[in-house]
Design brief:
2% of the residues lie in helices and 48% in strands. It contains 2 helices and 60 strands. It is flat.
Length: 792
């Protein structure tokens, strides 16, 4: 950040003083000359920089004197000869320091230069960053608008200064608040140029100045009307001609601007022409390049709005490229049609030449056509005659002609009459990739039929096949599924082609579904899924067979369009079923999918398991030793009890453990698993707690498990069941879905160490109620815990 010199809060550059004869002491005739241009600049909250100009060559050094008052006292600082700067450090923050300077040698001391002053920055506050991008815009004959970029985040405002020259002098005219980056300077003189600069300020001082921006107030004359109708025309490969309409009567001239490219790029002024001039030639341009132009009128009041933008492209400076793919097609006994590809962008036209006969003759130019024309009809020819053609592009005389195209040959038709047009064309979808056509032959002199197809009834049509005379059917193959094709047919002979038939269309059948998969779901059901490859099916037909290799197949169901799954139920256990699927639409059925099969499962088995061990562990907060005591109990307690009479806690928490032998489930698929617990005591207090079932990953034994041991158990985070509400009714059977835990035991994902039943939160510190509830343990039958499992 640049620092700014200050004198008692006013910029110090306004107070740089060269005070000859100020101060100083006696000396001889060879006292050194007084230095000049002394300046003091704030550097930080504890330092000020001094600079000066050394005006002598015989000084032995310089004397710097510093004070906090213009009347002293002065502290003296000495520096060596030929020095022109000094940094005074170790100063106090927010303090004004006054300096004066003299040169000295053995003959004495010069007059003092100064005083100058600067104020150190406020502690902890730095100068703001200088604003930038100051812009001045004339708004009227008496006002100019200013805007700038705020680059600091600690200014308290901005100071705006104005001058009548770029170098000043500048005078402060206004201040703005923090964050304000615009200002309108009003009350100005018309047709006058003003110069501006801006700086930020805060309690530490002023920033450096922004750039200097200027603007000239408008005159009282009205601005001219904008020109219109701007047109740009390429005159050569290096020049473009412009013309426009002059809509004003008070312009002093026109400003012409140009940009390169059809879009993008910025406009640059390239010329100014006088009043009343409405044309301009832009020369020295690059060949084959696009330029954009705009024009505006101007006078002493300023510029008009811009005209429209006109675009032109200079032609290529090289000869045009030769046309290619010339094709000659006989139309009748007296005419041949020509077509070619235009490969150039700078031709002024095309020259067409013809030769009679298959070879040996000479070509003669028969016609010219304009630029971009790519077709020609040669008429008044002889019947049954061979003609050869070639074409070349031409440009202006300074560029020349292109090479010739290929030679195209055609023979005019004979005088035989055209065949009658076929009729009653019919198109029928044959499969997802083919359509069958048939028509009525109404002529007796055709040599064949031409078959065309297109994307819709209006074309464009392309010939896809030709048949021999008398053939009235055709199969169009290798098509895209679920696509509509349009067809027309005409007869032909040596005289030419007949009119076309009616246009007929058909839509190929939907694409066959694929990737059919059959998956057993249960002993009486199989799930199917497939990939839908069509976009126009109305349904899917599902067929089933039970033979050793599939069929015979019979339809068992249909699904709606877009549905790609089906569950086949009511099946026989341990039976293999085969399936195939096909799509259907208004065009017909698709081909079949692949055949998929699956075998139903055996009938599920259900068992009920009783615990092989359970236990209650608890802790009494009044006796730390009990915290490591085993509590075998006939109840499985969950929660906390409190002694209401003694108003003391008798035991904080009870947690229960239960384990089942699930050896018979190893490797089985668990269909359902339910843990049943019967409530012995509901016991809901003021602060009932949610509770949990967790699979235990630590080994325990009923005779050895303790409260401390339970608190250190490892649990499987993926096999946890949260129950929000505790039981509210004594004798209530709570059935909990523990399928995930039992399946993990059956898979061997976690070892079967049983389950822990406990309250999710610790007890409420202010509760005086019975928050615990209890379930019957394995000692109580039939209310003991049970695990009901269905598997296959």
């Amino acid at each position: 950040m640049k620092s700014q010199s200050r004198w008692l809060g006013i910029p110090a550059f306004l107070f740089l003083a060269v005070l000859a004869g100020c101060g100083g002491g006696p000396g001889g005739d060879n006292v050194p000359a007084q230095p000049s241009n002394l300046a003091a600049t704030t550097l930080s909250e504890s330092s000020i920089g001094l600079t000066w100009t050394d005006m002598s060559s015989d000084e032995s050094g310089f004397v710097i004197e510093r004070s906090t008052s213009t009347s002293g006292p002065w502290a003296r600082i000495s520096v060596g000869p030929n020095v022109a700067s000094f940094t005074d450090s170790g100063l106090s923050a927010s303090t004004t320091y006054i300096y004066r300077l003299a040169a000295q040698n053995s003959d004495g001391i010069s007059s003092y230069l100064g005083p100058v002053g600067a104020i150190t920055m406020t502690a902890g506050i730095s100068l703001p960053t200088a604003p930038s991008s100051l812009a001045a815009t004339s708004a009227a004959s008496d006002s100019i608008s200013l805007s700038w970029l705020d680059n600091s985040n600690n200014e308290t405002g901005f100071r705006i200064e104005r001058g009548t020259a770029s170098t000043g002098p500048f005078t402060q005219i206004a201040t703005t608040s923090t964050g304000v980056t615009t200002y309108s300077n009003t009350g100005l003189t018309a047709s006058t140029t003003y110069y501006y600069r801006v700086r930020a300020n805060n309690s530490a001082g002023d920033s450096a100045f922004s750039n200097v921006a200027n603007a000239t107030t408008l005159t009282t004359t009205a601005r001219p009307a904008a020109p219109s109708g701007l047109a740009a025309t390429p005159a050569s490969s290096s020049s473009i001609s412009l013309s426009w309409v002059d809509n004003s009567n008070n312009e002093t001239g026109f400003k012409i601007e140009r940009a390169t490219g059809s879009t993008g790029g910025s406009f640059t002024q390239i010329a100014i022409v006088g009043a009343g001039v409405v044309a301009f030639s832009d020369t020295g341009r690059a060949a084959s390049t696009t330029y954009r132009y705009r024009v505006r009128a101007n006078n002493s009041a300023g510029d008009s709005a811009f005209s429209n933008v006109a675009i032109a492209t200079t032609p290529n400076a090289t000869p045009p490229a030769a046309p290619s793919s010339l094709v000659a097609t006989p139309v009748s006994s007296t005419s041949i049609s020509l077509s070619w590809i235009d490969n150039s962008n700078n031709e002024t036209g095309f020259r067409i030449e013809r030769e009679r006969g298959s070879n040996g003759g000479s070509f003669d130019q028969i016609a010219t056509v304009g630029p971009d024309v790519v077709a020609f009809s040669d008429t008044d020819l002889d019947p049954s005659t061979i003609y050869r053609y070639r074409v070349r592009a031409n440009a202006n005389n300074s560029v020349g002609n292109s090479a010739f195209s290929n030679v195209a040959i055609a023979t005019t038709l004979s005088t035989t009459t055209l065949p009658a047009a076929p009729s009653s064309l019919v198109a029928i979808s044959a499969s997802s990739t083919s359509i069958s056509l048939s028509w009525v032959d109404n002529s007796n002199n055709e040599t064949g039929f031409s078959i065309e197809h297109g994307p819709d009834s209006t074309g464009p049509f392309t010939q896809i096949a030709a048949t021999s005379e008398g053939v009235t059917a055709y199969s169009h193959i290798l098509l895209t599924a679920s696509t509509t094709y349009h067809y027309r047919v005409r007869a032909s002979n040596s005289a030419g082609d007949s009119a076309f038939t009616n246009v007929a269309n058909a839509t190929t059948r939907p694409a066959a579904p694929s990737t059919l998969a059959a998956t057993f779901a249960a002993s009486d059901s199989i799930s199917l899924s497939w990939l839908d490859n069509s976009t126009n099916e109305t349904e899917f037909s599902i067929e089933r067979g039970t033979g050793s290799t599939g069929g015979p197949f019979a339809q068992i169901a249909t699904t709606s369009a877009g549905v790609t799954t089906y569950s086949d139920t009511g099946l026989t256990a341990l039976t293999t079923y085969y399936y195939q699927v096909r799509a259907n639409s208004i065009a017909g059925y698709s081909d079949y999918s692949n055949v998929a099969n699956a075998t139903t499962l055996s009938v599920n088995t259900s068992i009920t398991l009783s615990p092989i061990a359970d236990n209650l562990v608890s802790v009494n907060s009044n006796d730390a030793a009990i915290a490591d005591t085993v509590f075998a109990s006939a109840d499985l307690v969950v929660g906390c009890n409190w002694d209401l009479m003694g108003l003391i806690q008798t035991f904080v928490c009870g947690q229960s453990l239960v384990i089942f032998d699930v050896t018979t489930l190893s490797g089985k698929t668990i269909d359902s698993a339910t843990l049943g617990l019967t409530t012995k005591d509901a016991g809901i207090g003021l602060f009932p707690r949610p509770w949990q079932i967790l699979a235990i990953e630590s080994v325990w034994f009923p005779s050895a498990v303790t409260w401390n041991m339970v608190s250190q158990f490892q649990y499987s985070p993926d096999h946890r069941i949260d129950i929000l509400d505790p039981p509210t009714i004594t004798g209530q059977v709570i059935n909990l879905d523990v399928k995930g835990i039992v399946q993990a035991w059956a898979n061997g994902t976690i070892f079967n160490n049983g389950m822990l039943v406990h309250v999710s939160n610790s007890t409420h510190p202010d509760a005086i109620s019975n928050d615990a509830f209890a379930f019957y343990s394995l000692e109580t039958i039939p209310e003991s815990p049970r695990l009901i499992v269905t598997y296959h």
